[in-house]
């Protein structure tokens, strides 16, 4: 284990906490006049990038107001900006930004291809770092012990690379969690909690793409630490930890007893700790994070979307008193909202970072779509997010939908509601957020619980009639057939409430009643782990509700699984 300098750790923790709280105070102060802040951001990005190829082509030098900006630049996606981004990635200068990108963040697109998100020093200074530091304020304010020692945090997303992949011009093309912001952008305090843990940089060789073995090695080391907090951002990563502990437990205990790590000598054999850990499984009949780390205090991850269905039970795996704090509403392309208090799911817009526009989530997101500003948003509504910032993304539809939970500090508070894509086989136009809410309502009405869910439309068996939604669910405890039927009926009605298109499709018999396919409790965890074993970074393997792709569906449910014929249910009113 790494040697610990208590005084050095305390000094850094104090400086880090001061920076975090100062950035939060700055964002809170900016909310006093959000319209002025938005105009300032717009003016800055236009003036700074007016002389670029993109700025010249779109007349940035003549634009002053948001209305003029709307007329000059259409709402656009990554595909629209990709030719400009590729020129920049190839080494051309002054294409999208006057600042040269130092790195390109990677992000999985809807096709599975890896995007190249240009990241410039000015973007990091004005857009990224203020929100990035402030995001940790609820954690370090209320759980300062997570900064007390290196082994207090298990940061699941931290994945440094010694030889990162690059663009054709030699710039790193990596995930945000793989960048050393201190070296690359001169921010020595920017290392996240847990990055200096003994498992932060793995002390034994492992292939860069062997993400599952990396996860094992970190967990093997963390079992001997005093972990107080788990950071996952992506909640599917956090959900994998209890599953991996149980799966890898014999190997972990043996390696601790033998003093090995990944089969190689590491430290000293510790038969006493191995015996202590072995006794946990004997005493409790299983092993949970709460058993291994009894002083666990907090989990930091997204708390919305499908995670709302399983986080309450998942939290219990880590300890009865554990708090779940929401990660920011953000993407590789930029921030949207950040929790400045202990709200369980939503955050305030980062008005100093980007110019934010919104489109009603039920509307089509077209290049000439009418957009709304922050002042126009209504609580209880869903919206597409469009943002513009100095880093070279202009009127960029990030592909996320947010829900306005309420208003605080005079501005709407935003929660991530899901991806913007729809399932639309028969005119139902269902969005992830609508299905998730219908699932939650059906679970509440029936008293059932599940670990995760996915769905697809498939033909009703043995008929030429309409297709139907099949929901693959992993129940927390077994469901009786009658309970599954009641759940499907409630879900049917809930989908009709959420989406007028779904109700119309059902009433017109373009869709048959939905049905459920009950899977083993660990089905989604095994599917997640298989995907990671296939070489996908864990941060990018997220909960996926719509799975129309046959290969994805078969991998989850198995090649012979078929949903039962549903019992008759009433058409939704």
Strand adjacency order, main sheet: 3-5-8-9
Record field, number of beta strands: 21
Low-pLDDT segments, ≥5 res: 566-573
Beta-strand proportion = 15-25%
Number of DSSP helical runs: 18
The largest sheet, given as strand count, sense and whether it forms a barrel, is: 4 strands, parallel
Helical residue percent band: 25-40%
SS-based structural class? alpha/beta
Mean pLDDT: 93
Distance between the termini: 63 Å
Rg: 24 Å
Q: What would you call the shape?
A: globular
Short description:
The protein has helices at 6-30, 34-49, 53-57, 66-72, 78-89, 121-134, 137-142, 181-185, 211-222, 235-258, 271-284, 289-292, 307-318, 432-446, 481-498, 500-507, 523-533, 550-557, and strands spanning 103-108, 114-119, 153-155, 173-174, 229-233, 260-261, 264-265, 298-301, 323-326, 329-331, 334-338, 348-349, 355-360, 382-389, 393-408, 411-419, 422-423, 430-431, 450-459, 467-475, 511-518. The chain is α/β, with parallel strands linked by helices and 573 residues long. The strands form 7 sheets. Strands 3-5-8-9 form a 4-stranded parallel β-sheet, with helices on one face.
């Amino acid at each position: 284990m790494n040697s610990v300098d208590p005084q050095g750790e305390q000094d850094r923790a104090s400086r880090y906490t001061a920076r975090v709280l100062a950035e939060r105070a700055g964002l809170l102060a900016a909310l006093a006049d959000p319209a002025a802040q938005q105009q300032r951001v717009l003016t800055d990005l236009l003036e700074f990038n007016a002389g670029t190829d993109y700025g010249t082509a779109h007349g940035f030098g003549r634009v002053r107001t948001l209305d003029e900006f709307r007329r000059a630049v259409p709402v656009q996606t990554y595909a629209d900006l990709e030719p400009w981004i590729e020129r920049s990635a190839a080494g051309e200068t002054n294409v999208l930004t006057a600042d040269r990108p130092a790195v390109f963040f990677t992000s999985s697109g809807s096709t599975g291809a890896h995007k190249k998100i240009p990241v410039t020093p000015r973007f990091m200074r004005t857009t990224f770092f203020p929100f990035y530091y402030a995001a940790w304020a609820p954690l370090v304010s209320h759980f300062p012990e997570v900064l007390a020692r290196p082994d207090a945090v298990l940061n699941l997303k931290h994945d440094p690379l010694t030889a990162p992949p690059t663009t054709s011009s030699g710039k790193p093309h990596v995930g945000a969690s793989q960048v050393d912001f201190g070296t690359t952008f001169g921010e020595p305090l920017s290392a996240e909690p847990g990055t200096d843990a003994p498992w932060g940089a793995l002390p034994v060789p492992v292939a860069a793409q062997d993400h599952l073995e990396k996860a094992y090695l970190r967990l093997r080391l963390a079992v001997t630490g005093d972990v107080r907090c788990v950071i996952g951002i992506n909640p599917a990563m956090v959900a994998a930890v209890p599953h991996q502990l149980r799966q890898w437990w014999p190997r972990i205990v043996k390696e601790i007893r033998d003093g090995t790590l990944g089969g190689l000598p590491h430290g000293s054999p510790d038969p006493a700790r191995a015996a202590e850990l072995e006794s946990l499984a004997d005493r409790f009949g299983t092993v949970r994070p709460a058993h291994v780390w009894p002083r666990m205090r907090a989990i930091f991850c997204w708390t919305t979307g499908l995670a709302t269905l399983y986080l309450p039970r998942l939290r219990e795996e880590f300890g009865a008193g554990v708090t779940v704090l929401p990660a920011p509403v953000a993407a590789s392309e930029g921030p949207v909202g950040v929790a400045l208090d202990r709200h369980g799911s939503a955050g305030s817009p980062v008005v100093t970072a980007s110019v934010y526009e919104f489109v009603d989530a039920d509307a089509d997101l077209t290049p000439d779509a009418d957009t709304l500003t922050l002042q126009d948003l209504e609580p209880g509504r869903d919206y597409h997010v469009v943002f513009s910032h100095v880093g070279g993304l202009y009127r960029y539809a990030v592909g996320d939908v947010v829900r306005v939970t309420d208003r605080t500090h005079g501005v709407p508070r935003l929660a991530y509601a899901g991806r913007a894509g729809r399932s639309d086989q028969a005119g139902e136009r269902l969005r992830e957020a609508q299905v998730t809410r219908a699932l939650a309502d059906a679970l509440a009405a029936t008293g059932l619980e599940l670990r995760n869910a996915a769905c697809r439309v498939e033909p009703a068996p043995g008929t030429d009639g309409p297709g139907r939604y099949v929901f693959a669910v992993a129940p927390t405890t077994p469901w009786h057939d009658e309970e599954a039927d009641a759940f499907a009926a409630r879900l049917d009605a809930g989908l009709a409430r959420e989406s007028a298109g779904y109700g119309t499709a059902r009433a017109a018999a373009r869709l048959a009643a939905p049905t459920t396919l009950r899977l083993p409790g660990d089905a989604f965890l095994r599917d997640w782990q298989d995907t990671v074993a296939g070489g996908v970074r864990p941060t990018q393997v997220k909960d996926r509700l719509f799975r129309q792709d046959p290969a994805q569906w078969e991998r989850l449910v198995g090649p012979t699984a078929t949903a039962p014929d549903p019992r008759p249910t009433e058409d939704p009113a």
